[in-house]
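Exercise 7. Given the encoded structure of a 125-residue chain, write a plausible sequence.
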């Protein structure tokens, strides 16, 4: 039961980091695995049998959220420099056109990184 309460607090922490965006979302790389582990513990501990169906479902969904948060945080670490450049550019952008140019620069940096590692994304029709 304590694990379920701790899981609730950790999931709220993950949601706050998502909402705060870059650079705070880098913390998802650390908090995500913690959420996943606590979620698994909440599902497997001795007292887990006393959890309601809703609590078990919530723990399972939270575990999945922890895995997604982990990969999101790791992706932000890999793309740290393009995200940092985008944030800095947008802080200087005063018009919609300037913001679009910032986004275009980010997209180009993202594509360069994909090309450097030999990753090809499927084309969209």
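Solution.
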């Amino acid at each position: 039961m304590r694990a379920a309460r701790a899981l609730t607090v950790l999931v709220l922490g993950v949601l706050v980091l998502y909402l705060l965006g870059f650079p705070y979302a880098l913390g998802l790389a650390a908090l995500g695995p913690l959420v996943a582990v606590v979620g698994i513990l909440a599902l497997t501990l001795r007292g887990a049998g006393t959890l309601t169906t809703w609590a078990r479902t919530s723990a399972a969904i939270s575990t999945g959220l922890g895995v997604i948060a982990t990969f999101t945080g790791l992706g932000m670490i890999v793309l740290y420099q393009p995200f940092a450049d985008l944030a800095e550019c947008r802080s200087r952008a005063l018009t919609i056109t300037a913001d679009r140019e910032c986004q275009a620069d980010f997209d180009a940096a993202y594509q360069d990184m994909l090309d450097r590692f030999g990753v090809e994304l499927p084309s969209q029709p």
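Remark. The radius of gyration is 19 Å. Students should compare their own answers with the one above.
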